[in-house]
Amino acid sequence: MFQKMKFARPRVARRLAVAVLLSAVAAMAMPVAALAAKSAPRMATLYKSPDCTCCDGYADHLRQSGFDVKIVVDENLVARAMALGVTEELLGCHTTLIDGYLVEGHVPIEYVHRLLHERPKIAGISVPGMPVGVPGMPGERQGPLRIFEIAAPGAVAGGPRIYAID
User: Fold this and answer.
1) What is the pLDDT of residues 104-158, one digit of tens each?
2) Contact 163/116 with Cβ under 8 angstroms?
3) What is the DSSP pairing of strand 101-105 with strand 124-127?
4) CA atoms within 13 A on the CB side of 115
5) pTM of the predicted protein model
6) Which of 29, 40, 98, 112 has a C-alpha 20 to 30 A away from that of 13?
7) What is the Cα–Cα distance from 81 to 91, expressed in whole angstroms?
């Protein structure tokens, strides 16, 4: 009886070792796959006027946060933004398209990330004009920054809604 057990034990031990090894390899592969998916840069297309330098600063802000930014110089930026659904009161310095959303003007990156994470049923977000002290604009900010929603096509008309106050 002991002789059978001597021969059976190595077989069981070998099977157990193979199972443990395969489990360990599978466990290590899952975080690597997840990391690879997270580390792939998101694409952003930034439309800007030919002479604007603050738009380049905003593109750098996006790049520093892991976005792959393509800059397109547009002679008629206002018409492009309005065709995409940006109203006159929400026009910013440049128009950026990221993952199906509009990001109009100098929106701080944390709100871009929030937009992409939450995926609300809006067309995008906007910081109208060229406020001082926001990403891409020099100087010290003077008071709170209002980030507005850009309504989805077909949304009920009304004034701009606030997405966040920074």
Assistant:
1) 999 999 999 999 999 999 999 999 998 888 888 888 888 999 999 999 988 876 7
2) no
3) parallel
4) 26
5) 0.74
6) 29
7) 7
